[in-house]
Write a structure and sequence with these properties.
There is one protein chain. The chain is α/β, with parallel strands linked by helices and 301 residues long. The chain is built from twelve helices and nine strands. The longest helix is centred in the first third of the chain and has 22 residues. It starts with a helix and ends with a helix. It binds guanosine-5'-monophosphate (2 copies) and manganese (II) ion (MN).
Length: 301
C-alpha cells in the first residue's frame, strides 16, 4: 500500500489493531476504510480530551427519571452523559464511550462525571430538591483500575457531603467477568453502594452472579419490553425475570418503557420500577427540577 517504509509500517500496524480488536488468530489487510476509521476515532479522542480539559462545558449530564410502577412516584434517576461539540453536533455516548474505553480516557471521564453529578445535586439542593437515588453507568474498562477507584469515588462524595447510599452503579453482565471486576464490585458494595445489572438478558448471564454479588436491581433490557404486551415470548421472559427477582429480593427496573400498555402490563406482573420515554426522557438538571416538583404535586393530589 505504500513505497515508503515508515508508512508501510504504520499502516500494517493499523491493520493489526483492527485484527486484534476482532479477536484472536485473525488476519487483516490494510484498507482506506481502516485508515478513515482509525483517524476518525483518533480525532474524536482528541476532541474528547480537549472537552474534558475545558472543564466540561461541552459535556453535560442528562437525568432520566425512574418511577415506582405502582404509585408513579420518582424513586431515582439514571445519569447519562451527553456531548455537544462546538459545531453543534450532539454525539451519543454509544459513539464516544467505546472510543474512550479503547484509549483509557474513560478513567478521566468517570472521575469528571462523578464531580459533575455532585455539582448538579448541589444545584438541585439549592432549589429545594433532594433526589432519592442516582444510578451511574460504569464500564468494564473502569473496573480495570482496581479497588483504588472505589476510594476515589468515596473521596469525591465525602468532599461534597453526598451520602454513599444515594448512589447505585450499573454494570452490564460482561463487567462481572472483566479484569478486576469482582474485586471492585465487592469493594463498592462493602463501601455501601448498591449494584444494578444493566441490559439484563442481552449478554451472557450467569444466574450465580446475582447471588454472588448481592445485586440490588436488575434492569431488563429494552429489547424484551419493546413488543409488550402482545409478544408472548417476551411477555414470558419478562414475567419469569420478575418472579425470579422477587424470590431473590432483587428489584426489577424495566428499561425503554414507551407506552402506557407496556407500563400496565409491567404493573400487573409486579415489576417495581419503570424507566423510559413514556415516564420521562433523559433531561438536563433544570428540567429535572420541574419534573420532580410536578411529580410531588401529583403524589399529593
Ligand atoms: O444515552 P444513550 O442511549 O445514548 O447511552 C448509550 C449507552 O452509553 C448506554 O448503554 C449507557 O449505559 C452508556 N452511557 C451513558 N452514559 C455513560 C457514562 O457516563 N459512563 C459509561 N461508562 N457509560 C455511559
Ligand atoms: O444501556 P443503558 O441502559 O445504560 O442505556 C440507556 C439508554 O437508553 C439511554 O441513553 C436512553 O437514551 C435510552 N432510552 C431511555 N429510554 C428509552 C426508551 O423509552 N426508548 C428508547 N428507544 N431508548 C430509551
Ligand atoms: Mn444504564
Amino acid at each position: 500500500d505504500s513505497d515508503d517504509p515508515a508508512t508501510l509500517m504504520r499502516w500494517s500496524e493499523m491493520a493489526m489493531y483492527v485484527a486484534k480488536s476482532q479477536g484472536k488468530s485473525r488476519y487483516q489487510f490494510f484498507s482506506e476504510q481502516i485508515n478513515d476509521k482509525v483517524h476518525g476515532e483518533l480525532q474524536i479522542e482528541a476532541e474528547l480530551r480537549r472537552a474534558l480539559r475545558d472543564k466540561g462545558s461541552e459535556l453535560w449530564i442528562a437525568y432520566q427519571p425512574q418511577l415506582c410502577t405502582r404509585t408513579r412516584r420518582l424513586v431515582g434517576v439514571e445519569a447519562l452523559m451527553r456531548w455537544r461539540t462546538p459545531d453543534g453536533k450532539a454525539l451519543s455516548p454509544g459513539d464516544f464511550i467505546p472510543i474512550a474505553e479503547k484509549s483509557g480516557l474513560i478513567t478521566e471521564i468517570g472521575a469528571w462525571l462523578l464531580v459533575r453529578i455532585c455539582e448538579d445535586l448541589e444545584e438541585l439542593r439549592r432549589n429545594g430538591i433532594e433526589l432519592p437515588k442516582v444510578s451511574v453507568n460504569v464500564s468494564p474498562r473502569e473496573l480495570k483500575q482496581g479497588k483504588s477507584v472505589v476510594d476515589d469515588i468515596c473521596h469525591t462524595l465525602r468532599r461534597f457531603g453526598e451520602p454513599i447510599e444515594r448512589f447505585q452503579f450499573e454494570v452490564t453482565e460482561n463487567a462481572l467477568m472483566a479484569e478486576n471486576g469482582p474485586e471492585v464490585l465487592d469493594a463498592m458494595r462493602h463501601a455501601g453502594f448498591s449494584l444494578a445489572i444493566d441490559d439484563f438478558g442481552a449478554g451472557y448471564s450467569s444466574l450465580g452472579y446475582l447471588k454472588r454479588f448481592q445485586v440490588s436491581a436488575l434492569k431488563i433490557d429494552r429489547q424484551f419490553i419493546q413488543e409488550l404486551p402482545h409478544d408472548e415470548e417476551n411477555a414470558a421472559i419478562v414475567t419469569a425475570v420478575i418472579q425470579m427477582s422477587a424470590a431473590l429480593g432483587i428489584k426489577v427496573v424495566a428499561e425503554g418503557v414507551e407506552t402506557e400498555a407496556q407500563a400496565e402490563f409491567l404493573g400487573t406482573h409486579g415489576c417495581d420500577v419503570l424507566q423510559g420515554y413514556h415516564t420521562g426522557r433523559p433531561m438536563p438538571p433544570a428540567q429535572l427540577a420541574d419534573f420532580v416538583r410536578l411529580n410531588e404535586a401529583n403524589q399529593r393530589a
